[in-house]
Fold this sequence. Notes:
single chain, 235 residues, four-stranded mixed β-sheet, globular, disordered C terminus
Amino acid sequence: MIGKIIDVSGTPRRLTLHRGFMVVAENDHELGRVALDDIAGLIVDSHGCMISTQIMAALADSGIPVVICGNHHTPAGVFWPVVAHHAQTARMAGQLSASKALNNAIWCRIIREKIRQQAACLDRTGSDGGKSLRALIAKVRPNDPTNIEAQAAARYWRFLFGDDFRRERNADGINGMLNYGYGVLRAAVARGIVATGLNHTVGIHHRSGVTVGARRRHAGTVPANERRNRVVDGA
């Protein structure tokens, strides 16, 4: 179990240290334990969880980041060791200094896999739309300039829910259930990203208020004459 992300959730838990092991308990009943040497990151998604300063210090000494989740199960804060772990520093620096070409290539892979999974979902429902979606995968290019993602989504929803269905964020019914599902998935992905030493607010495609200057200054690579506000792809 070397290098695993440990996710502590459920009813209020208690985390303590015992002879190099993190012990997870509910009240006075031990639920399990894991060696600190086997932990790459800890996610605490248990409201009311009690964590001893002893285990927090031990996690810090081992270079293990601790993610504390809020009411919506998304990261509310991250506890980092005072002396940053070399792997965490390298990962975040690499993330912030990633080139546009690399981000475009990553986005291409994500969209292709998204369409591939949409097709697989249609197959499981007995729909014959999977073939139609798979035909679009090879058309996705870096950064998806022709927006194949949207074309695949339009076909996907039509095959899945019928011609009258419209995907709307603020609608009830099926849309409301989809929004809930997206929320659960987004929280899980964000927790995993943060626990590996990356910043889940630094995106690779969609725009936000993050600037080139802010990203490079954080990575320590921006010259003084380039510190200007240019909106780039963010979370």
